[in-house]
Amino acid sequence: MLSFFSKQDFSDAFAFLHTDMHSHLLPGVDDGSPDVETSVDLLKNLQDIGFKKIITTPHIYQPFHKNTKAGLEGVYNTLKPQLKDKGIHLDFEVASEYFVDEHFEKLIQDDEIMSFGDKYVLIEISFVAYPKNLDAIIFELTSRGYKPILAHPERYLYLADNIKFFENLIRVGCILQPNINSFMGYYGRKSEEVARFFVEEKFASLLGTDLHHYRHLDALKTLMKNKKIMKLLQNHNWLNPGL
Predict the structure, then answer these.
(1) Comparing C-alpha atoms, which of 151, 177, 56 is closest to residue 98?
(2) pTM of the prediction?
């Protein structure tokens, strides 16, 4: 399946970010890209809309996505050499998006974490209930020199009105990363409101596509036409260019 948008319809709208640090573009490893052809095409599209670097972050989440560091690096090492032949000149790296659970705690203890940049680690939590061990895990990560990033915090709707929760996360060293498509209501109106709040109040420091498939890509390209949203995002001081 190919996106119905053509390359010439879009400019380098996301060049201001330079780097996307949240996506699911390794083929066949999680709920993202199913095959090499799709991975290559999605990466080509991200290049066309202005990204210069992609740090893809497949899930490690037992028992649904039983990935390992060695396994993901193997798939990455198979995919990366094929990109240049397809006209893709992105700086392409791999890390992971970790679900906060006991398995993740063990990976921390075993020093099996896939980080990126200055020891950044992308984490996610349940969409239905707050994990009681989150504070302890953030402390363990920071004590080891890691910089935890909470993925798509605007989507945890049971926390949407708990400003103190997010203030505390930032205070103890956790970075907030909303999804770009949240700003156009892709995940619902409440998530859109919370994402905008995070930017307006300077709670958010990183921005990601969380790209899984063509629906996400097409939503990104629709958002690019919205001058108001793009101005909001472009005027924020994101850490992405420094990754």
Answers:
(1) 151
(2) 0.95
